[in-house]
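Weekly sync notes, structure subgroup
Attendees: PM, AL, DS (notes)

Item 1: joint prediction request from the bench team. They want all two components modeled as one assembly rather than separately. Inputs as received:
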Amino acid sequence: MNALSRWWFVEVPAKRLAAVRIVVGAYGLHDLTEGYERYARIARQAPEQWSPVGPLRVLREPLDPSAFDAWQAVHWALALCFVVGFGWRVLAPLCAVSSICFYAYRTSWGGAYHSDNLFVFQVLCLALGPAAAAWSVDAAMARRWPDRLRWSRSGPLPDVDWRFGWTLRLAATVTVITYLLAGTAKLATNASGWLTGTNLVSQVGKDALYKAFVSPPAQPNEIVPWLYHHPHLMLIPSLLTLVVECGAPLALVDRRLGWLWSFGAWCMHRGILLIMGIPFGYPLSGVAFACFFPLDVWVERAYELGRRVSSALVSKRMASS
Amino acid sequence: MEYATPMTRLGATIWSVLVCGAVLSPIVQGFRDEPHDDFPLSWFPMFAAARPDVEKPVYAVAIGGGAHAFVPAHYWTAGGFNQGATQLIGAAAAGPTKLRPLCERIAGAVAKRPLRGVSAPGEVQIRRGTYSLETFFGAGDPTPLSETVLVSCAVPE
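Output from the run, pasted for the record:
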């Protein structure tokens, strides 16, 4: 029990959690900014296409487009506060709830975007922890104006604390669970098809068939007819998919296994993009796996390198003048 | 107001159990006869289920001047292929109450925007085809085994 407790509540620097907050938040902010017009158009579809999911079942009908526009603007502002770490204690939980509802709203118009699930889960995990204790507006304000807006910030913590490590462990565990669920779904519904690779061929074919009819003039990937002549080749990616998904819990056992698993999962998504043309944006960006890596160490090394290079350049310039 | 009290280990443990339990809870869906997927609590069933030998896709076709063309999803949704295909399947499952308005919306969009392959579209049909994947991709024959018109509507002038 003590070993489990030490592992779950591992002490890490505040900056490690802050770095994950910044990259996860930046991904969300980029998605909202890049898709701002698109989300507004989706919210203006005919009400008969509306079929609410998750928390939005409380709505009997879709929001008035002007109400959605106001919500989207507020959500965008919350996402910005999340990235910069402002008003964390109050605004981060609001951002997490708003994210869940926002992407549920988009999904309520049809379609499943499974990489959004992991994104909103990770935002929720980060919002539960003190992710704005470093590299944030809150941290800067606490230094400069310690008495202002105290209620909106998380309480002061040491530079290295278990709360930072716990938040990252929670985010990593949730990540692993989502992949484990995907693997379990495959084994529970069609184990023989996945263990022999035949189901993957059919899935690729079904997806390509729909694309031929619903997104013309795009034609199915040329690899699809070729795969139908060499179906046995899909055994390897099929088994690798099961290894990545069902073996996901191993990523929590050791940090190097975590890195290896992250790379394997990323490769799996690259393969899906290559063969099926389906972009799982969040894992493909790599941000989904940020909680497995010591980003703060990388940032500080990059900073140190930049500092050395700039001071070397300055010395060279002074010597030459 | 003062700072919030920092999270205790007990509080962190409770949150951990709640969050992990909630995310893990849809696992039971995989073992049910009629599983249900949701957002954000999903059992991630993408690509999991066995596919039949023949697929029955639903699609929209514009017809006019002796030609016909498949209508791309962006004519009726901003949500891309995924949302477009789901809306067609959902409408086909729901029947005329959803099919008719969707068909009319697609016809309205076809009237406003030219569609490659049909210069003067007069009608839009939502069809369900029956295709053998082996024949379609393996033999390279795109002819459906059968095709049913679920609904048709005129393209407005």
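Discussion: The beta strands of chain B are 54-55, 58-64, 67-70, 123-132, 146-154.
Action: AL to compare against the crosslinking data before next sync.
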